[in-house]
Amino acid sequence: MKNRTILKLSRHNKNKEIEFELQYLGSLSVRQRFTLMFKKTKEMISLLERHGHRRAFKIIKRS
Q1: What's the pLDDT tens digit per position in 9-21?
Q2: Is residue 61 part of a domain?
Q3: Residue 36 domain-assigned?
């Protein structure tokens, strides 16, 4: 993946932050976006488990 640029603002500006993030995501290929999505999903699961939230129940198909 490309090196990520850092947005520096003198004041908090939600619209500029969103525009910056969308521009960054638009610059990625589909494969890069999915890789990023899977990486962030694993990161969120890890954080939840570390803070005492267990994994969700899995549906098991009975035969």
Answers
A1: 999 999 999 999 9
A2: no
A3: yes
> How many domains is the chain partitioned into structurally?
1
More confidently predicted of 63 and 14: 14
The DSSP result for 6-60, as a single string, is PP--SS--HHHHHHHHHHHHHHS-HHHHHHHHHHHHHHHHHHHHHTTPPPPPPP-
Residue 40 lies in a domain: yes
Query: Is 63 part of a structural domain of the chain?
Result: no
Exposed, middle or buried by CB within 10 Å (0-12, 13-18, 19+), for 33? middle
Cα dihedral 37, 41, 42, 45, rounded to 10, equals 170
